[in-house]
Design a protein that fits this description.
Length: about 60
């Protein structure tokens, strides 16, 4: 079973990237990433780091 926090983080990052730098969407995605890191395995962490890099490019 996939990590639900990971899925939420991925969705939030996709929304933030599609929102053209909306500060609220970016903050929501950052919060979701933070929660997902705590409960992720090594493979998920690699993907979460990539998502975090995407967010950093937006802000």
């Amino acid at each position: 079973m996939a990590n639900p926090l990971f899925r939420q983080a991925r969705t939030a990052v996709e929304e933030a990237c599609g929102s053209q730098s909306d500060p609220q969407a970016i903050q929501k995605a950052k919060n979701a990433l933070s929660s997902a890191f705590a409960n992720s395995n090594n493979e998920e962490r690699k993907q979460l780091h990539s998502m975090q890099d995407e967010l950093n490019r937006l802000s």
